[in-house]
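Q: Joint fold for the lines below.
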Amino acid sequence: MTEEKVNLEENDTTTQSGVFLPKIEELVVSSSPHVHDNQTVRKIMLTVLLALVPSCLCGIYFYGINALMVIIYCVVFSVAVEVLWCRIAGKKTDTWKDCSAILTGVLLAMNLSAGIPWWVCLIGAGIGIGIGKQIYGGLGYNPFNPALVARVALLVAFPKLMTTWVPSRFMTENPVYDKIITYAPSAEQLKGKVIPFLSNTCDSITCATPLGVVKELSKSGVHNVSAFDAVSNTPMYWDYFFGNMGGCLGETSVLALLAGGIFLIAMKIIKWHIPVTYIATVAIFSAAIHAANPAITPGPLFHVITGGLFLGAFFMATDMVTSPITKKGMIIFGIGCGIITSLIRIWGNYPEGVSFSILLMNAVVPLIDKFTVTVPFGYKAAEKKVGA
Amino acid sequence: MSNLHHDDHIYFAGGVHPEEGKYLSESKAIQEAPLLDSYTVILNQHIGAPPKLIVKKGDAVKKGQLLAEAGGFVSAPVHSPTSGTVRNIEDCPGPMGVPLLAVVIDSDGKDEWGSSLEPIADWENTSPDDLKKRISDAGLVGMGGAAFPTHVKLSPPPEKKIDHLIFNGAECEPYLTADHRLMLEYPESVVEGCAIIARVLGVKNIYIGIEANKPDAIKVLREKAASFGVNIIALRVRYPQGAEKQLIYAVTGRKVPAGGLPMDAGCVVQNIGTAVAVTEAVKEGKPLFERVTTVTGEPLANPGNWKFRIGTPVSKAIELAGGVKYSPAKVILGGPMMGFAQKNLQVPVMKNTSGILLLSKEQLVQYESYPCIRCGRCVDACPMNIIPGPLSTMIESGEFELAEKNNLMHCIECGSCAYVCPSFRPLVQHFRRGKAEINARKRKMKK
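A: Joint structure:
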């Protein structure tokens, strides 16, 4: 400011009365509005990242330092791919500073097992940022959620790796989970096949997800309420809620995801419409099927708090770029995601359908937007007038 | 602000609440600006036909004397702000960057009165038509911004039944306090002007809508209003509360039909400044040659509210406000949400100049913009309930017909969307361009 004052004194824009007038050459002419509320894309992305912190911490808490490494790999590779792509494409290379690539990296990590090797993270980041986002022109132009594009591509390319889960470290200490083998239907019923929660392979202990167990039971032709009971009972529900379960490192703790999601809604970064309709649809759908025949699938609570539903509903389906912009559109989107998720979970080939359902609904967002254009203020009155 | 009491229970959806900045000037009483050596009176200060010049170079004129008469029904005459001689009739810088024809008057320092309009003391027994003629002869236009000739608004076609007359004292634009001070210091003129206009229209329901952040003005006006049958409504503090359609909705609960005018909802809306000007035109025979304008902004040494003669250069107004403490980055005619940035400070104060606002470098909005990330903040902010973000990308890619189908023409250019856009997209500019393009195509089609 002192510098400016000096400039002013040197300037000849003083009047006879000795007051200073604005320097014409410094005046900027631009269109209204001339003020801004200071919200930026970067701040929005950082807020979402902040909302993901509890879930990441839970992942690290339950799956150990490996989870942290997966997160770091994914973030570093995502940013690297973004910078590299922009450099090769001759675009500005500072787009990573908007933090959207970091967010994609974190979301990708949250969709991976803590035991995933680093090179899978690299391929995932390449697919997510490259084919999921930059190939369309970068942030704002991508029709599909980049992290989900990466996850689904990896799932198809490395089905074994992507469905091998690390048990949470408390599961291995808890005898309940060993006993699940005996809780599970008898070998006879399973035609010689045993579906355990935890299994000792030659070098490590792996773990099935609750949805995985249910899917295996169904595929084996076991439609048995007591078989489902082995993975859908109250003490286990508490474990699912806190995240003490096998699964992707960021998807298991419903509590942490809920906290982050509520934070985002409170900060007005996302609206409640997609997560609430999505989760409610899954609950209602599974409740209806369960009520019709409990041997087809476990009850609604099981479907709501297992798998990636909360991660998907609060953080993936609400991705601004790839979800509808109006509230009505968001409700349609949420319901669509819920129905497709339930269909895949109950009758599909995959145990989990959150990723597929969101990607499928991403594809119809332009159509949803087209049919949910808002009615401008005063428009109804005009129609009535024409009618009258 | 939410703890301020407001009477309206029906709110328009959307809107924003920018930092008000009114503290700079809201407690500063209106000062009479000293007489200048010369004034530059722009002829075409209103929407409509340009007025016809009736003076020539070298003519002696007096204060309030007619310089140019109305050039049609939708037009307004222009009067001399002081006594002196016509130095020249020449182009002067206009607020939109386009030069405009103006009468330059050298003041003789005597400031002699020369209005041909006789005061009407007993307006209550004067015919509405005579009152309307007076309003028209005094060159009154909407003083809130659009500068639409007042008498035209007071001449609704007979099939439009007007039952509500609403005065806009919302002053929802941040920083501006001219209307606030007018209501506080001239409450009698405000309510009397309301009553005069109501007589012209033959309307019984008279309202003044004031944002609840002006409790002192609300209190003063409530004391004066009852005897004239004027109702004071404290409005929720939300920009753009003063936009015609939003104001009508808050006061009456009626929605102006899309593409329609206030009269389609049985309403006429006038600015509070216009009400004061009407009182003066009728009771004193005073044409509109001066107005109250807020000169404000952090860079100014002494922000405040002044009564300027029409034709006062902006640079003189800034000088009166003590000049600048440091050089500003913007000088704006009007408020920060809808005002026009200026490059030439010789632009004169006009009938609709509600404020002269200076913004510092720190207040400049980032110029670089990014692609729309569809965050939906603009959808939440839009008071017309359209979808600004995707609409702007349609215009960006030249899809004008698609944009029209997506309700582009409903945009009131209030700037709420651009105010909240995290990608700093120039949304209002896109919409202005889109509208201009569509209108141009329609004109071509007609030909």
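Q: Anything notable?
A: Chain B has a mean pLDDT of 93. Residues 187 and 221 of chain B are 6 Å apart (CA to CA).
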